[in-house]
Amino acid sequence: MDLLMIGVIAAVAVVTVTALAPRVGVSAPLLLVVLGVLISLVPAVPAVEIEPEWILGVVLPPLLYATSVSMPTMDFRRDLTAISGLSVLLVVVTSVALGLLFSWLIPGVSLATGIALGAVISPTDAVATSIVRRSGVSPRVVTVLEGESLLNDASALVLLRSAIVATAASVTLWEVATDFVFAVAVAVLIGAVVGKLSLWVRARVADPHLTTAISFIVPFVAYIPAEHLDASGLVATVAAGLVAGTGSVRLRPQDRIAEAANWRTLELLLEGAVFLLMGLELYGLVVEVRDDHGSLWVALGLGALAATVVLLVRTGYVAFLLATLSRRARRGESARGFLTAINDRVDAIGDLRREDLAALRLPGRPPGDEGGRGPRAAGRTERLRTRITRRIADLDYLRAEPLGPREGAVLVWAGMRGVVTLAAAQSLPSDTPHRALLVLVAFVVAAGTLLVQGGTLGWLVRRLGLARDGAEDRADLDRLVGEMARAAGDLLGSADLRRPDGSPYSPDVLDKARRLTVRQGAEVDEDADAEADRTSVAAQYRELRLAVLEAQRAALLRVRDLGTASSGALTEALKVLDADQISLELRTRE
User: Fold this and answer.
1) Residue 370: is its pLDDT beyond 50?
2) What's the Cα-to-Cα distance from 204 to each of 210, 214, 250, 547, rounded to whole Å?
3) CA 94 to CA 317: how far, in whole Å?
4) What is the pLDDT of residue 356?
5) Using one digit for the tens of pLDDT, what is the confidence trace for 548-567?
6) How many CA atoms lie within 13 A of 10 on its CB side?
7) CB distance 65 to 238 below 8 Å
8) pLDDT of residue 102
9) What is the maximum alpha-carbon separation in the chain?
10) Cα angle vertex 555, ends 238, 567, to 5°?
11) Short-list 527, 386, 442, 370, CA closest to 113
12) Contact at 8 Å (CB) between 103 and 114?
């Protein structure tokens, strides 16, 4: 009963604080941390300590899955190089720098133990970066930060595991690298298989409640086998989410909308509980450190110093990253001209030399295919056109969404730590020298960066003039409306248009369908719709409307594959199609 009461009180606190946060003008996660700290200081409240396995194995998988499902894989692919560097190289550099610092300043702490604590502190937190999403910054900045926070847990936890082993035995750099590659490769494979399997199962289940229940299970189905194979369960969860998110557009609209609503509710409660828990654990850590060391100033000083080092290392790496991306962007400008010229000649693909194909990293012509215009040549031409168009769209995206000094400042300041740091710190062995002190140092870094950097991030974004008004997405949405109109026109003008049973549509139905008006979706002339409902051709008319919606959805997916529109505009356009289809199907049942 006590546990149930605590759960109810926590849920009420999360809902109340989340509702009041916009009025106060402070992010809800920050208020929940402060509330947790204040509650932990009440004498009647006992010390709270949660086993790290509950955070790493129960709370984080669904949160990471929810974030990765909603992440646009198109943008993730475009910035994979930057995300990988932040997730791996920066974690290693930060861990080693902090390890040297801790081993120098704390008596009895070896370099291996220091690096272990550095690995605990180094990863940014996916839950904490939810603050960034609400600040209105560039979608590219959000993608880079969320991608980093989703993947750097793997490198940090593998490094932590190796450092702990090194405290009792020697570990080579090769063993650490091999362990990391194995952990990530196996996790990605498991996650991809689980994501594909979940889509296959959910596509064959007609009840939205059941498909939602299946989606709740998916992160744990990916996490558990990966952990049993000594791979990264969190990376497996992220991989499953990316695969499921990309393929979910093939599911029924009712299923997607039901899942999205339920996942938002679960994400709200879990995120809030995580931040509240961070604050609640403060008192127990303070008492333990005071009993062992008699003063908290050492922990506070070390935490502040560690946070400063983290910030300086991150600043240096982001500066290096921006310089690298700038050079790539300049090379991309010249590459774009080359690609555009080839695109103009793509119909004459047979005249391209092997050197041209090699420059695009495409295979040469197979023996016996000398550029003819048969099916093989036509297929090859289409694949080449798709790759060129996608590459040009990537270059246009990187040019339209540059990462300059202002965006770099946000990337640095948004590198907050969170509950992953606290949970990983509590996984340090019980015989670790000064364990309570080290855990409190990790808490100071996590809470300090969350409160200081998270509390001023919105001000920094406004000061730098990076807040977006959505004008770019609206322009892309207008272009997508044109694409959907063309798709509807092509379908209705096709001589091969038939009903599902193979019979032709009546001329009256086709005439009414051609009066479709497309305004941010597949809305129809309501007078024609009402008239159709009053006639015997209503069934044909609704079939045709569903066919139009499907053709428009296919056109949007083609645009997504090419990358010629922003992910935000594509998401909104697909939502409109989903709403239209649900409305049509509901009227059909009446």
Assistant:
1) no
2) 11, 12, 11, 20
3) 10
4) 53
5) 888 888 898 888 888 888 88
6) 21
7) yes
8) 92
9) 89
10) 40
11) 442
12) yes
Q: Of 98 and 332, which is predicted with more confidence?
A: 98
- Is residue 285 over pLDDT 50? yes
- Residue 51: C-alpha distances to residues 61, 111, 179, 519 (Å): 16, 26, 25, 53
In terms of C-beta density within 10 A (0-12 exposed, 13-18 middle, 19 or more buried), how is residue 538 classed? middle
Query: At CA 167, angle to CA 165 and CA 171, rounded to 5?
Result: 55
Q: Distance (Å, rounded) from C-alpha 248 to C-alpha 258? A: 12
Contact 114/100 with Cβ under 8 angstroms?
yes
The confidence score (pLDDT) of residue 524 equals: 44
What pLDDT does 98 receive?
Answer: 94
The Cα–Cα gap between 102 and 519 comes to 61
Look at residues 228, 417, 226, 396 and name the one whose alpha carbon lies nearest to residue 306: 417
Is residue 247 within 8 Å of 199, Cβ to Cβ?
yes
Taking the C-alpha atoms of residue 422 and residue 444, their distance in angstroms, rounded to an integer, is: 9
Residue 481 clears pLDDT 60, i.e. is over it: yes
The tens digit of pLDDT for each residue in 259-283 reads 888 998 998 888 888 888 888 887 7
- Give burial (CB, 10 Å; 0-12/13-18/19+) of 114: buried
3-state secondary structure 317-328: HHHHHHHHHHHH
Q: What is the pTM of this model?
A: 0.82
CA distance 526 to 534: 12
pLDDT at 86: 93
What's the pLDDT score for residue 513?
A: 67
Between CA 395 and CA 390 the distance in angstroms is 9
Instruction: Say which residues have a Cβ less than 8 Å from residue 529's Cβ, sequence separation at least 6.
Output: 541
CB-side neighbour CA atoms (13 Å) of 60: 30
The number of beta carbons lying within 10 Å of the beta carbon of residue 189 is 15
pLDDT of residue 213: 92
Share of the chain above pLDDT 90, in %: 21
Contact of 444 with 305, CB cutoff 8 Å? no
80 exposed, middle or buried (CB, 10 Å; 0-12, 13-18, 19+)? middle
Q: Which residues contact 461 (CB under 8 A, 6 or more apart)?
A: 135, 136, 137, 410, 467
At residue 539, what are phi and psi to the nearest 5 degrees? -60, -45
Q: Where do we find the tokens 């039901």?
A: 258
Asked if residue 235 lies in contact with residue 206, where contact means CB atoms within 8 angstroms, the answer is no
Give exposure, 393-415, as e/b (b: 16+ Cβ within 10 Å).
bbbebbeebebeebbbbbbbbbb
Plot region of 520 (φ>0 → left; ψ -120 to 50 → alpha; else → beta):
left
Q: For residues 552 and 367, give the distance between their C-alpha atoms in angstroms, rounded to a whole number.
A: 39
Q: Are 158 and 94 in contact (CB under 8 A)?
A: no
Tens digit of pLDDT for each residue in 235-267? 899 999 999 998 888 888 888 888 888 998 998
The enclosing H or E element of 183 equals helix 173-203
